[in-house]
Amino acid sequence: MDIQILPLDETKLKPVPEHDFGFGNKFANRMFSQKYTAGVGWHDAQIGPYAPFTLDPATAVFHYAQEIFEGLKAYRRPDGNINLFRPWENMKRFNNSARRMAMAPVDEEEHLAAIAKLVELESKWVPRVPGAALYIRPTMIATEAALGVHASTEYLHYVIIGPVGSYFKEGFNPVPVYISDQYRRAVRGGVGSAKTGGNYAASLFVGEDAKTKGYSQVLWLDAIEGRYIEEVGAMNIAFVYEGKHIVTPQLTGSILPGVTRDSVLTLGRDLGYEVSEEQIDVNEMLADVQSGRITEVFGCGTAAVIAPVGKFGYKDEEYIINNYEVGPVAKQLFDELTGIQYGRIPDRFGWTMMIEAE
Ligand SMILES: *Cc1c(COP(=O)(O)O)cnc(C)c1O
User: What domain range includes position 327?
Assistant: First the structure.
């Protein structure tokens, strides 16, 4: 892939924000894009000005939601250079999602090279503020303009980037989580393990409903028995038993295989915890919270890295975890993971890809 680098109109450049990054509403001046046409393959790879698309109203993605995305971050190191965290995993997952959604896979090496080049060109946009980072959003949409129901013959693949502030505005604090006994996010055999917008669309109503009840996230149970724990919001979830055993739901096909989840398992084992992937029954889990056998619960995902859970609400009952305080395991995992991501501590797992800042 030869990426064409298009010039920017210097008179129209957005200034790089120094603080107040928000979360996902400010974007750098450049983006990457390329197009796919059946019979031709991928073409027109370019890094050019961040700009709107003009799309036919019949474009497939607007009607049948054939789309996928990824989410990863670039972190400013103490030496001024930039780390990507396990970007190879995101690239593999992007193509796994593409295959499940009957979309054209991309060349993983080229895709990653495009991201690295984009971040290098826009390196000023990687914040130097503690806890902040540059969010990277690779996306692919079906662009054939026709209403027939079939896999699109054309795709647009693009990458946008923008600074994001610390996920925890008021510090690293536990969140209240609502367990829905009525609604489900994804079903085995469905698309729960693909990073596709439809999974999010299906979850919004329940998330809004949980907010009116005073909860900030929803814990999803499996769709077949309504009994086994799957994910929390758009994060994976982990439980700590007696301060030493980290357990996360095993991947069943309806759970998104998170990079943070995998990192927690590897790091947890390395730090001397017992670590396992199991089927977790919601009633047993809540009984273990009440008895104190479960000492901590936390979500894990790129946005928050580790998000401690302070309480569960389920069928009109509340279950407080660890006195609504951040526990030592969540804190240690957060410090170690962010330490590696920001290059403050040695990367003993080979998880980071360094980009030299200009
Ligand atoms: C992206 C995502 C996650 C977390 O994955 P990470 O790779 O750790 O960011 C978890 N669940 C869902 C539904 C997701 O979309």
Answer: 175-338
Query: Counting atoms of ligand 1 from 1, which one is nearest the CA of 93?
Result: 7
Total residues found in the chain within this entry: 358
Residues 214 and 269 in one domain: yes
pLDDT of residue 22: 78
Ligand 1 centroid vs 303 CA: distance in angstroms? 9
Q: What is the DSSP string of 294-322?
A: EEEEEEEETTTEEEEEEEEEETTEEEE-G
Ligand 1 atom closest to the CA of 195, numbered from 1: 15
The answer on 251 and 126 residing in a single domain is no
Q: Are 312 and 216 in contact (CB under 8 A)?
A: no
Residue 185 and residue 266 in one domain? yes
The verdict on 184 and 130 lying in the same domain is no
Distance 13 CA to ligand 1 centre (A): 32
Averaged pLDDT score across all residues of the chain: 96
Distance 195 CA to ligand 1 centre (A): 8
pLDDT class for 254, splitting at 50, 70, 90?
Answer: very high
Q: Is residue 343, in this structure, part of any structural domain at all?
A: no
Same domain? 113 vs 186: no
- 171-211 confidence digits (pLDDT tens): 789 999 999 999 999 999 999 999 999 999 999 999 999 99
Contact 253, 283 (CB under 8 A): no
